[in-house]
Amino acid sequence: MSFVSYAMILAGGLGSRLCILSEKRAKPAVPFGGKYRIIDFSLSNCVNSGIFDVGILTQYRPLSLRDHIGIGRAWDLDRKRGGVELLQPFQGWAETDWYRGTADAIHQNWTRVEEREAEHLLVLSGDHVYRMDYRPMIEAHLARGADATVAYTEVPKEEARGFGIVDVDREDRVQGFLEKPASPPAGTVSMGVYVFRTAALHAVLREDAERDSAHDFGKNILPTMVRSGRVLGFRHEGYWQDIGTLDSYYRANLDLVKPDPPFPLEDPRWHVFTPSTEFPPARIGGRAEVRSSIVTHGTIVNGIVERSVLFPGAVVEEGAVVRDSIVMGETWIGPQAALDQVILDKRVHVGPRARVGFGTDRTPNRSCPEHLSSGLTIVGKEARIPEGVTIGRNCRISANLIEEDFPGDTIPSGGVLERELNVAH
User: Fold this and answer.
1) Same domain, yes or no: 309 and 228
2) What CATH number does residue 35 fall under?
3) CA atoms within 13 A on the CB side of 392
4) Global pTM?
5) Torsion 364-367-372-378 (CA) sign
């Protein structure tokens, strides 16, 4: 029986809805869960499912992703046969150009599929957090002779408009596929996990390449295959979170610190692999209080940490309070500082007595109200917040700012601070 031995992970999107978290890195490379990157979950699912030949299609700001994956040793993918390979476009070559969409990315790299003589291909999104053994889905796909099989799950109907809607009958045959409708008819959504019969997929990709289209799996390829081929659905019952927005990123991280987390990272039956960083063990001070939080290696906590995620090397000084927040690696929280519903990117410096995420005013962010309206405040990489400054809610503080860039001692809720403007607005 034919089987799937090759997977391609789509990891090249802009990820603008993650705001400044994805300004300097591809969305799948965004840190997550204390020690991981988002792409670790798709990669770990592959190797735990026995798939050790993986191509990662990346385009937007790939350096962070490339450095993280390296030669694939953390996932046992440093192999002479198979292994992991980053597939980037090179503008100007006769045979390739910038990827015009997810489908075009695979079409431009079709020689990789042909070289493996793969009769079936696993295609994954690189920006989802979930645990899934792909083998039962692959077995169902092969047993029923499908041209394509789409993994689907259920989300609240009011949240479904950000996803592809899958219409399946009682026998899991896909009757329709609707990409991100304004008024979703149901909450049955595609997970971005597909198995294709390669001959059927290649035929549709060739036709799509000649059309004026978005060259996208959800908008073009799957609707075409549903109309003309045998497309099946495969229901996934476990936890799944698309990290498509700041709110979903924040929610998925804070899910991990619940008393009974829906997605426990410590499950010994299904390891999530990632490169190890060289930090000493975490140290908790004598006056520290840590409750319902993830505190990783290299962290030093002398203050109060509640319902928060601290990445390697984060420091919380005495008298500081960190609540309901995500603090990325090598960040320093000064004495008497306070964080509430805040996301700090890597190597941020929060001065003594600064208050970030302060007050009850929920004015949406003036620059990106569609991304920052729930009360979250976000601070970019390597920003330095001055001593005693108060920053409200739904604020956006850009990367690499220094103390002199702050125009005063208060950034009101909904405010934006960018170096080139040198003002809060």
Assistant:
1) no
2) 3.90.550.10
3) 22
4) 0.92
5) negative
